[in-house]
Design brief:
Layout: H1 7-21, H2 28-35, H3 39-45, H4 49-71, H5 79-89, H6 93-104, H7 106-129, H8 137-153, H9 161-172
Amino acid sequence: MSDRLRGKDWLSFGLKTLGEEGFTALKADRMARALNVSRGSFYWHFKNLRHFHEALLDHWKTTTTDIIIDDIDTRSDTALRTLIGEAFNADRKLERAIRAWATETEWVGERVASLDKRRITFIEKLLEAQGIAQNAIPVRATVLYWAYLGGALVQHTRLPDGQLDALVDMMLGK
């Protein structure tokens, strides 16, 4: 790689490193060696490791949540099915790594909890658009999200497409 890495290059590499090696591998010198650049390249973009970690979590939030939420048409009858299909079929090793980091570092846990709330709120919005009774929405949204997280923790196991559809149908009361 070139010595002229952009901050976004570092963040993308950081997410890859986090997903493959865990949060303890998120060190400037270790990543710089892997990228074949000097640590100065890292510190050109990030004032310190904490700044990088914060930017990395922002990048994770953007790429795994914000973009997806922005792309899903909440008025569509298939919005919930689309979200569940994308979420459950994605590679979730990064999700596991972030959550492991969150159990070890309080401020990371707070950021993850905030994102969890945002994701559940979005699922609630999709359920509301499908006409689910208001009193049932929070429970159904939470159960769907827990199913996603549980699936992320069980490596190398996926629900067949028909079972994903059955899960959505069940949450929609069909």
